[in-house]
Amino acid sequence: MSAADGRGRNALNETGTDLSPVLPLNSFGNVVMFLFNIALASAIIILNLSVFLSIMISDSLRSQNQFMYMLSTCISDICSGVSYYYVGLFDVRDSYDSPRRTYHIVPTFLGLSYMAILAAQADRYHAVTAPFKYSHRMTRNRTILVILAYWVYAFFIVGVTNLLTPGVARKLTAIGTFVGNIFTVIIMIGLNVRLFIIAKYQLERDPPSVERDSKRSSIYLIVLVAVFFLCAWLPIFIHIIVCSFFGSTCYAFKNEGTDPLRMLPRINAAFTPVLYIRGCTPLRETLFGKVWKMCSTKRR
Question: Which pTM does this prediction carry?
Answer without folding.
Answer: 0.86
